[in-house]
Specification:
The structure holds two protein chains of two kinds.
Chain A lengths: L5 H15 L3 H24 L8 H24 L4 H6 L1 H6 L5 H35 L4 H28 L3 H28 L4 H5 L5 H5 L5 H12 L4 E4 L2 E4 L6 H25 L3
Antiparallel strand pairs in A: 1-2
Helix pairs in contact in A: 1-6, 2-3, 2-6, 3-6, 3-7, 3-8, 3-11, 6-7, 7-8, 7-11, 7-12, 11-12
Chain B lengths: L1 E6 L6 E6 L4 E5 L6 E5 L9 E12 L2 E12 L3 E5 L6 H8 L7 E6 L2 E2 L4 H6 L1 E4 L11 H12 L6 H7 L15 H13 L5 E5 L7 H16 L3 E6 L2 H7 L2 E6 L2 E6 L1 H7 L5 E6 L16 E7 L2 E6 L1 H13 L4 E7 L3 H9 L5
Parallel strand pairs in B: 7-12, 7-13, 10-11, 11-12
Antiparallel strand pairs in B: 1-2, 3-4, 5-6, 5-8, 8-9, 13-14, 15-17, 15-18, 16-17
Classes of the chains: A mainly alpha, B alpha+beta.
Chain lengths: 283, 351
Amino acid sequence: MATINPRAIYTIAKKEFLDNIRNKWIILLTIIFIILIVVFSYVAGGQTGEDTFGNMQNTVFGLLGISSLLIPLIAIILGFSTISGEAESGALYVVLSYPIRRIEVLLGKLLGLGFVITASIFLGFGLGGIVIASTVGTQSFGGYIAFILLSIFLGFIYLSLAICISSYCKRRITSIGGGILVFFWGMIYGTVLMGIYFGMGHSMEDLMSGNIPDWFFNSVVFSPGDLYQTAVQRAFGVTTIDAAGFKFSIPEFLSTPVLLLSQIIWFTIPLILAYYFFKRRDI
Amino acid sequence: MTSKTVMCPQCKHQITIEGNPGETVILTCPNCNLKGKFTFPGEKSTGSFSIQVNGLTKIFKDLKAVDNVSFNVRRGEIYGFLGPNGAGKTTTIKAMLGLIHTNSGEVKINGFSINGESINARKNVGFLPERVAFYENLTPLQTLHFFCELRGVDKSVARPLLKEVGLEEAIDRKVGTFSKGMIQLLGVAQALIGNPSVYVLDEPTSGLDARWAKIIRDKIKMLNERGATVLFSSHNLNEVENLADRVAIINKGKLIAEDTVTNLSKYLHMKPRLEITIKGLNGKIPDVISNFQGVEAVEVKGNILCITCESPIRAKVISSLEKAGLIIDNIKTIEPSLEDTFIKLIEGGGA
């Protein structure tokens, strides 16, 4: 088997970073990140009765829902047309006529686009974190760092999914469709689970009282967004959720290693598939 | 080509294989089915060909886009690849560079197989695709720096290359703001990175105005003068005729002819055409020419009478016209053009 040239991967990654860091959508979403974290922090402070910024944990938990939507959105915007779009425009013809392997192109794209997400998250959540730390102190700072790292990893998972779609789809327009499908799967997954839950004869009272079967929790492994949220809660040492009238414990099964392993699988399998499709693709 | 007998390490069966020095052959033992590979000793000999295409076939679903195409491009020659739209030119070029997977056949560039030794094969190839595109948010300088890094060439060559293609004034502009002509020139600049010995240019002047097209044609001549091998595809017959040392004509996926323009004409028994300008002809074929023995074709365009016939007949034709009282202003002999050859071949004259 031919060896992989790290220099070629670096070259592709650098180009992807330079080309996409100026993407106006990414700049806009990063600004939204910064605004959100400050707003959520303030809201979290209000919930605890303080007329100031909330602590890190409250801020992060307030942000989780929106970040588990925004980060996949950024990743899908960056990755959905990286292969299909460039193949359609003709940019990929030139790159692949150079002495470079397809695996190197794929990994370079993943890393370059991943760095764009990382920069966006670091800038948004990092700046926000500094603001909160400077006003309310560094309590739960370890959890906050874990939140940032898990957010970056969520970005890589969705990037891997988006690149897989882009490698499979012949045309840019079809990969947009695929990207939307993946994004909405993350959005509606919770609703689907609730539907199954109520369909099995459970009532709202069951849900409110925490009478929730294990499969309901364990099925978070099928949703990278839910995995991310659960992993962040674990990172802050939270085992019982008590919010919006719901109170339940995160089952033992969903330990940090299980959550991380599930996320690694979500990242790896689409990437392997992406390479499989890309290698066989006619450009 | 040399042959070598090797022994299967598993069953000790003797296997005879053929190959060239430096070539790696993948073999399967007919006795025990053990798979292995053998590299013939010695340096890779590329002979006198820069590009060798052998039995290339590509089928898209039920369409045979390229059908058993074989040709060789000699070192240092300009090779025109000609065919109507949809003939299979771009598919062949893509297959040559490993951009598409073929159903059968082999391509070697500088002696390296595009399938088995793709990195080595592509090291010395400059490619300009028909639909060239670059990254919109990068400047041309950043774009060339990127391709320099991919080829392992010092980035300092980027600025002189941009100057060479006339893009030095746009050096800090984003590529997204470029016109089609400028993008094509940037494409030419990227193909020149590292002074490759082989250039593959797919419709390099397609869609460009006359000024840009001339710049690119001059560049092709310049590359050839530097000793490079250039394969370029085109459906512009004049362009191919003026630039190419040899021409391959492809139609419906099949290579129907390959030679110099002159030889192709001879092969098709195409005769020079006599163009006689006659005062007051006004689109009418003179009676004296109708049914003239030995005249194969007669055509009139205004005052110009076009006659196709063997050389000995020409003098007789002119003499008869004068005897008939027609006033001849001018006489020209037109050699068969690539266009004539191309049309005849496409219409099945060479098949």
